[in-house]
């Protein structure tokens, strides 16, 4: 399975779907994705094969950690995400995979900033803010 930016310069080979598919409605994900929410699949970083150049934007999270977004310097597409809350895991936006048969989210987070007209019925877990660290 492969994810890529719009121009194809930055690609990520991943082992396939994972049980960690998350819809996030936080304001930062809304702005990052240009949509009412972002959806990402998370994999152990060592299982990903990344090809191409990326630039990184780092922001502070509500809990005081860092969240990193890697994007293509040519077309601007987000292709990778990682945060201090889950070290060793990297998120890949499901839209970058562009597979209509990709499984739906199993978790929906930051629903306190979710648009009224959005529903994520497939999610087994719903959180007003981020999922508590276990």
From TrEMBL:
InterPro entries: CENP-V/GFA, Mss4-like_sf. It holds the Pfam family GFA. The keyword Zinc applies. Transmembrane segments: none annotated. Residues 1-111 form the CENP-V/GFA domain. Belongs to the Gfa family. It comes from Parasphingorhabdus marina DSM 22363. This is Uncharacterized conserved protein. GO terms for molecular function: carbon-sulfur lyase activity; metal ion binding. Keywords: Lyase, Metal-binding, Zinc. It comes from the Bacteria.
């Amino acid at each position: 399975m492969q994810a890529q930016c719009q121009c194809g310069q930055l690609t990520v080979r991943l082992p396939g779907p994972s049980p960690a598919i998350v819809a996030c409605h936080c304001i930062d994900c809304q702005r990052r994705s240009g949509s009412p929410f972002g959806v990402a699949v998370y994999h152990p970083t060592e299982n990903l094969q990344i090809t191409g150049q990326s630039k990184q934007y780092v922001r502070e999270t509500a809990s005081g950690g860092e969240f990193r977004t890697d994007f293509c310097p040519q077309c601007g597409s987000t292709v990778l995400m990682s945060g201090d809350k889950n070290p060793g895991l990297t998120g890949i936006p499901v839209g970058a995979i562009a597979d209509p048969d990709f499984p739906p989210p199993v978790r929906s987070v930051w629903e306190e900033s979710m648009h009224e007209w959005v529903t994520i019925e497939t999610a087994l877990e719903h959180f007003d803010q981020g999922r508590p660290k276990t």
